[in-house]
Amino acid sequence: MPAAAEVLYLSYNGIGEPLVESQVLAYLRRLAATGLRFTLLTFERRPLAGEHEAALRESLAADGIRWYWLRSRAGWGPLSALLDVRRGLAVVRALHARHGFRLVHARSFLPALIAQRFKRRSGVPFLNDLRGFWVDEKVYRGRLRGDGAVYRIAKRLEAQVLRDSDYIVSLSERGARELAGFAAWRGGTLPPLATIPTCVDLERFRPAPARTPAQPLLGYVGSLSEEYLPEEVVAWFAAVRARLPQSRLELVTRSATAPLQAALARHGVPADCVQLHALPPAQVPARIQRFDAALSFIRPHFAKLASCPTKVGEYLACGVPVISNGGIGDLDALLGAGDTGCVLADFAPEARARSVDHLQRLWQDPALATRCRALAECHFSLAEGCARYAAAYARLLGTTG
């Protein structure tokens, strides 16, 4: 890889979001240590406090990362998203005049749209880092109609961006297989494609000393919005309590908790056996280490075939077995063997009961935590993920002057 190559990284997520720390900055710090020079451009939903912004910029600079940001109009509709693309493109051109980028790494669809338009004028190649099927995610979340004109226009833009990509990264093998069949490739050539899941810093997320769960602590980390099925989380925990009345549930989330509280009441779960925490990212590993099993439920949809829940790798890295539902990324294949958790075929009471039976058997196996950790090391290693990105960068930088 050419020394000191200038790389622009575009993120539509704001700098303070937990996933940016784990899924953007963790990678950039390691890749910058190889000699690459990174410029990070983020889109911020809220204004940043001056002192906090200055301290963060200084900290990132010490890690070899220049940071710039734009105020995002996200959430104001399709026209506002396109305005973000237009404003972002203007800033990218100005930054290119200053730093001379050799490569653009675009995280998700709107940054890829910016990178595509920048490439048309500058010739700078771009890596299209898919974070799921973005357009279909909008349908999944009720923000677009799947039979509407805006959806059809967005899908045409998506096809154009995919065709113009110089390299594509998918979060899952299932997503990569779907990509291979996309209509975008008809009459064209599929760009180089790699699968890199949401990786985990295995030094931060480590197993705690083994213990036998006499009073099982079940855990959950992340959003409790509707797509993450808080009703099913509570229903599953109620099924555990029916078998193991001393069980407790601990949730680490920044989401509003009113829907969860209502679900607890509906399922007759006492409030005193459930704990809620809103923790900074640095404190999350120690909390996960306390779990005896952890949940990752997501409402299935075509868009979710290209997903990889960050929490799953974090759970496994801490030696914690995972209870998931099927139809989400590669989880059926990863957890389907049943020796590191359980995949529910559906949310029927019988499926819940079978998963509880299975979990009780797993808890009797002293090698459980070791197997979970080994799966994380094999599939979710941050070092391996960085190596795959470095290989992609080297391939693209080798084609530029």
Number of helices: 15
Shape annotation: globular
Largest sheet: 7 strands, parallel
* CATH class placement of the largest domain: Alpha Beta
Report mean pLDDT, rounded to a whole number.
93
**Percent range for β-strand residues:** 15-25%
Separation, N- and C-terminal Cα atoms: 12 Å
The CATH architecture assignment of the largest domain turns out to be 3-Layer(aba) Sandwich
Strand order of the largest sheet: 3-2-1-4-5-6-7
Helix content: 40-55%
Note down, in words, how this protein is organized.
The chain has helices at 18-32, 50-62, 78-99, 109-122, 134-140, 149-164, 173-180, 230-243, 258-266, 284-288, 310-317, 331-335, 349-363, 368-379, 382-397, and strands spanning 6-11, 37-44, 65-71, 103-107, 126-129, 167-170, 193-195, 217-221, 248-252, 274-277, 293-296, 322-325, 341-344. By secondary structure, the chain is α/β, with parallel strands linked by helices. It folds into 2 domains: 6-199 and 381-397, Glycogen Phosphorylase B (Rossmann fold), CATH 3.40.50; 217-379, Rossmann fold (3-Layer(aba) Sandwich). The strands form 2 sheets. A 7-stranded parallel sheet has the order 3-2-1-4-5-6-7, sandwiched between helices. A 6-stranded parallel sheet has the order 10-9-8-11-12-13, with helices on both faces. Helix 8 runs parallel beside helix 9 (258-266) and helix 11 packs across helix 14. The chain is globular.
